[in-house]
Amino acid sequence: MKMTSNASNPPHLDCHLTIARAKNITCSKNDRLFIRYHLSTSDNMRSARLETREAASASDPSWNDHVHLECHGSAEDLGRQKVVFELRSRRGWGRSSSLLGRGEVAWGDALASTPDMSMERWVVMDREGKVGEGEIAMLLVGMKVGVPEKVGRRRIRCRRSLSECECEHGGCLGAEEDVFAFAALLVDVC
């Protein structure tokens, strides 16, 4: 994939991440399982940390969480980054969680997997806690990368008076929006 850019129009990609379910997990029925995942930022020095909601059942944990990211940078830059998944358990409200397993997937795997740059795979979770005897804990994830369709931009002009502001929310302060590595982070529960 080749993307062109200039200083006023940096390249960006639409990245979709789905966390479906886990299998081969042995835990107490009182355990509340969730996934914590870390997404690399553009400088690879920090990561954004997100969590799924807690699974309804510890015996058959599923989430079907979908995250849409607008990643600024080239496909080559994205291919060097990864997502780290942690299967975690929490007992009781307000308590800290314990790590059951950890696995990772590189965005480059999705970029190179198929012509439509998508994949679905069972990620092996390295043992950190209890798992079934002789079984390997696994997490089903999906990843897809695409080039967004061109969308026309409308420049909003802000006046000195809030009553003259042209933006929809009327709370404009006349400042430009900050641009982040993950500009749009939308979490939808399917």
TrEMBL record:
Q: Which InterPro entries match?
A: C2_dom (IPR000008), C2_domain_sf (IPR035892)
PROSITE patterns listed in its UniProt record: C2 (PS50004)
- Which stretches make up the C2 domain? 1-123
Matches recorded under PANTHER family: OS04G0455700 PROTEIN, OSJNBA0006M15.15 PROTEIN
This protein's name: C2 domain-containing protein
